[in-house]
Design brief:
The chain is mostly helical and 195 residues long. The protein has one domain: all-alpha NTP pyrophosphatase fold, CATH 1.10.4010. Helix content is 69%, strand content 0%. The protein is built from 8 helices and no strands.
Length: 195
């Protein structure tokens, strides 16, 4: 897990530098931390939606479904780095029995993402609030458990997940070096991954 955190850290340095930000400065600045927790939370939510769509179209266990899980993992590691959840804190593989259905895992993930959002002061109309780090940490640990459950459902042990993550991380670096953006995004490079 340490290796994956290191790879994600280097990718975060690159992606934020490309938009004129410093990942270390962002994680040290309380105001920026909240912004980036929310940015990564939204990105993880979008990947969850893509995974759900993939399962609806192709069923559980598809190759692209595995990649969607790893895409979620990229943002989960990023969130963990910001909230300071360390690799040693993560219960991987899952502490669950492995009997969760896909629908239960998706619902648990959605609720954990909601709990993460609720750790931030996001209700602009409400008074009080502020960042609740313990709540964010608990939500992230639940998200890690959900990720492990998804891996189990898709037949990915830790080594398979790691190989897939490394292949996708390499692709993400290539995308950063190129002209990858929302307008030219396709799944073709994902589907060509070797893992």
């Amino acid at each position: 897990m340490e290796e994956l955190f290191g790879l994600q850290y280097r990718l975060n340095l690159r992606t934020l530098r490309k938009i004129g930000l410093d990942f270390d400065a962002v994680t040290a600045d309380p105001e920026q931390r909240y912004v980036w927790i929310e940015n990564y939370r939204k990105a993880l939510s979008a990947e969850l939606a893509e995974l759900i769509r993939e399962v609806q179209e192709n069923g559980i266990g598809s190759r692209n479904g595995r990649i969607e899980i790893v895409d979620m993992l990229h943002f989960l590691i990023s969130l963990s780095q910001i909230v300071q959840v360390r690799p040693a804190d993560i219960p991987f593989p899952s502490k669950t029995s492995g009997e969760d259905s896909f629908q239960v895992c998706a619902l648990r993930t959605f609720l954990a993402l909601d709990e993460l959002q609720n750790s931030l002061k996001w209700k602009w109309w409400a008074t009080g609030g502020g960042f609740k780090e313990e709540r964010a940490t608990a939500a992230l640990l639940e998200l890690w458990d959900c990720c492990a459950a998804f891996c189990s459902l898709f037949g990915m042990d830790f080594e398979t997940m790691k190989k897939t993550y490394i292949a996708k991380n390499r692709l993400n670096f290539q995308r950063q070096d190129g002209e990858y953006d929302e307008d030219n995004k396709t799944e073709e490079d994902n589907l060509a991954l070797k893992f």
